[in-house]
Amino acid sequence: MAESGRKIICVNRRARFDYTISETIEAGLVLQGTEVKSLRDGRADLKDAYADIQEGEVFLLHAHIDQYEQANRFNHDPVRPRKLLLHKREIQRLVGKTQERGLTLIPTRMYFSRGKAKVELGLAKGKRQYDKREEVKRRSAQRDIERALAGE
User: Fold this and answer.
1) Digit-coded pLDDT (tens) for 17-47
2) pTM check: above 0.85
3) 106 lies in a domain?
């Protein structure tokens, strides 16, 4: 358990490296039974996932939830589109934000909160290649400073 009854299933580590995330939103997931069982085993990946707004509803696309091994023929499709649960006002606000230049919805992590599967969406803007290089240099310099202070 990480923070106040939350069990983290998976984290999208590339999201903060590839995107500048301005704000985050918590959304519920509509899942099938075998997907929930697979998530409880921690078998999910958000690497290439993103959220899209279609006809007033938000869907999580390209999120991979492994098939549940004991489910045999009643299993789910691992990369099917999954509906996200948000209030209508939140969806309308997101439509306005995503129509701005370059903003997209990227899932940053998936977790269970009080037994319900949730996904944290980040309103993100893609980073340029030189921004990524600068961030790597900054982290490296910070690590060197910390090593020097620890050695004293």
Assistant:
1) 888 888 899 999 998 888 888 888 888 889 8
2) no
3) yes
